Amino acid sequence: MIARLRSAQAPSAVLMVRPQHFAPNPQTAADNQFQRPATQPPGPLAAAAYAEVTRAAGQLREAGVRVHLFEDDGARDTPDAVFPNNWFSTHAGGHVAIHPMYSPNRRRERRSDVIELLKRDYRVQDVIDYTGLEADGLYLEGTGAMVLDHLARVAYVARSQRADPVALERFCTHFNYEPMAFDAHDAEGRPIYHTNVLMCVASEFALVGFELFADAGRAAQVRARLEESGRTVLALSAAQIGEFAGNAIELSDQAGERLLALSARAHACLSAAQRAVIERSARLLPLAVPTIELAGGSVRCMLAGIHLAAR
């Protein structure tokens, strides 16, 4: 049975950016262990990424999600423009945050026309700009660095150079979230670069890669905090995290029914039991984005959820 009650956790609108000159970003390769070298020459690679975003936007619209699709021509050297959820986030009550970014070329992804669309189509009360923190070397890359529980008001954060504790504290104070930070590492001991490759918090379940947590006690605390909110917690293996199973996002269609958008690769690695738990409250919507995933992010990174009331 698909839940029909609208959830603040599952937005019914998203913003996407379709790239003209997609490429894995050399400025992020050092700390993004999910990133892979390009497998095609620049022209075919960019065309494949363009087609994947076009197809994914169409599938989301067919599923009843409102999609705002922006174009990026690459003229500003923005190889990661396809991942807009890192530079801005939206919040119930009409609030928008603009986030400080670690890599210099990612800062060029910020664009005023996106903010103007939000102000035009949604009820925006204020825009809080944290980009001044970049001058002090303080970064907090949006809903990549943070996985937000909009219902229990918790910000889950894997510590990394893209998630500074000072910036996190400032954000949580402004937006009324409880910060819950932890350490998570890959097999070589490197910090996981973004929390949203490690976990997904939906309305009635959560997907979490506990095997990558550095401290078992902290992992137990995170599990308990999620279970306190009434969610079923599904543990993802390190191998499943490597297949982007944690990089998913719960959305709603226009009727309020929930769906879980994730990549086809992520969907394929879920067990039958895991899928059954998810499908008790959300239908699965796999999207094929293998070219985009070369850049080290997947479907969750491609979708900036809009938690604002429409005008």
Automatic annotation (TrEMBL):
N-terminal signal peptide: none
Q: Quote the Pfam families the UniProt record gives.
A: DDAH_eukar (PF19420)
**Domain of life, per lineage:** Bacteria
PANTHER family recorded: AMIDINOTRANSFERASE
Its protein name is: Arginine deiminase-related protein
Organism equals Paucibacter sediminis
